[in-house]
Amino acid sequence: MSEKTEQEKAQAGKSMAMPSDMKAFNAKVIADFRANHGQFTGPMAGRGVLILTTTGARSGKARTAVLGYGRAGDRLVVIASDNGAPAAPAWYHNLLARPIATVELGPEPFKVRARVAKPEERDELAKAVPYLAQQQTLTKREIPIVVLERS
Q: Are residues 129 and 139 in the same domain?
């Protein structure tokens, strides 16, 4: 048998199971990303993910999340799915209260201004996140699409 290429390894990792402790998993992913100068390694290598740091809506403290994303031109597009949970994730509520956040996507973090996609933009922006339709089947609420624009 031949050895798998890096691309095959990355592709194989795309079907990994959901970790039982997402908070611990995300902390490890964030530490790995930062230790490797803005590169994901291990099971996250080759995935379309970014690190988003928001300011807590109530606490005022920095809150960091690992999110899948897509691109629509020079904008980054994320969905507030929380894997189909009945309510949107905390980072979404943080952005509604305080729309300026930091994105890490490579070695240099940058500031973004977040906004919820307008109804007339949804169909076009949904193309940037092809897993939205699958995530939408997991919940009755409409999953918000969030646009992150460099500020």
A: yes
Q: What angle is formed at CA 94 by the lines to CA 92 and CA 99, rounded to 5 degrees? A: 90
26 and 97, same structural domain? no
Q: Which residue has the tokens 């790995």?
A: 32
In angstroms, the first-to-last Cα distance of the chain is 50
One domain, residues 55 and 75 = yes
Listed in sequence order, the DSSP H helices in the chain are: 6-13, 22-35, 90-97, 122-126, 132-136
* CA-based nearest residue to 52, from 96, 106, 91: 91
The closest of 14, 23, 21, 50 to 34, measured between CA atoms, is 50
Residue 130: domain span = 48-150
User: Are residues 76 and 117 in contact, defined by beta-carbon separation less than 8 angstroms?
Assistant: no
pLDDT, tens digit (0-9, with 9 covering 90-100), for 70-111: 999 999 999 999 999 999 999 999 999 999 999 999 889 999
